[in-house]
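Late entry, 4'-deoxy-4'-aminopyridoxal-5'-phosphate complex.
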Amino acid sequence: MSLANTPDPEARKAVVRQDLGNVLHPIVQHKVLEQQQIVVTSAQNSTIVDADGTAYLDAMAGLWCVNIGYGRTELAAVAAEQMQQLAYYPHTAMNVPAAALAEKINGLLGGDNHIYFVNSGSEANEAGFKIARQYMKQEHPGEFRYKTITRYFSYHGTTLGTLAAGGMGERKTKFEPLSGDFIHVAQPYCYRCPFGLTYPSCALACVKNMETTILGEGPETVAEIIVEPIMSGVGVAVPPDEYLPEVEKLCRKYGLLLHVDEVINGFGRTGKMFGHQHWGISPDIISIAKGISSAYLPIAATVVKNHVFQSFYGDASDNRQVAQVNTYGGHPAAAAVALRNIEIMQEERLAERAAEMGAYLMDGLRGLMHHPWIGDVRGKGLLVGVELVLDRQTKEPVTSAHIQSVVDFCRNNGVIVGRSGGGRRYSNTITLCPPLVITRGEIDRIVEVLGQAVASLGRQLASAA
Ligand code: PMP
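Prediction complete; structure with ligand written out below:
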């Protein structure tokens, strides 16, 4: 059954019945889905369309991923052509699109890397953890370096390993105990500094905390540090300029690998091709996903610097190959689509566009700060957070129900926005991460509707007082 173009209420009802009776949806409550009943059947640029014809401006690019926007039929043609030529072969041999994609990504990252293809951001991070451990075993056989230093309130994925690496308590408790090999340190979240300090007089207490932790654990037990350049899940926390270079220095000082999670930050999102490029650091391992194919097909990768690659390089008698396998890695159709997706980003200069449109979006949002419930507007490129508070002086956060009412208001008025997922704390930020092709007119609409939503929250708060 196709619901693509002409609204057909009966056909739509049948899909809703079929879905509610059969699909197990994660992360949302089924009773909420029963009420909302959004059936997305088509999409173009930054707009998704329900089977009943209702259009929504998608200010979250799906799940932070449709960077080049919806409806690029050219990518469908690339996939179809590749599937006719060679739909699949495992990465125990070479294939044409995977080789070309690896060369393209390597070129974007300075040319001294090798790329291991996987299928999701979680898998890319998980592979990075394992590569870091195996590398340390091979390069430092006398030591036992296996721990990962990570930050509280980070998000790195949904598998048991990446969940343990993540720092959002509420997402973890249902599955604990988790691996103890991930050691958490304070997050660089300046609006709510974990040390109660203010930048720059803080003298980067968060980096000092990281060093103290490394020393406390014993550097000879630590393999790597993982950081997302701009922490998205916690509500888009842009670190101070010295933060990432200082973290890199710690890695060099103590012989750790620097592992950067570019799953959201990557592929133009923050106004450069990769988030870490704002700070001139040189990671040893990079996890990429989402924007790599703008989610047209599932594909992700773990990028390793050549000195790491060299540790895995040997002949048939060697046992130093990357000791993991996945069925779909380097999938020819997904790789072909990802390659064309990146070419489109370059042809249309979408990273530069993200920088320009992001500045326009932030200007518009700062124009809403006459609403006293907006505590902070922050971001880089088209990765933006709007933190809502009950009191700008005390920074008391709005509740989870309040932030949800803003999300719901926006959706009911045709704009999809996100919310931070910090769990018990830090769930009070509206997140915006639209396709990089978003227009000024669409940004005006996002700002207008969000302004109305915040005003509505204000009326709600006033009437409850
Ligand atoms: N790292 C970060 C920073 C993410 O935001 C996400 C997903 N939102 C992941 C890793 C995991 O990616 P995936 O959902 O593709 O497994």
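The chain has 15 helices and 16 strands. Will revisit in the morning.
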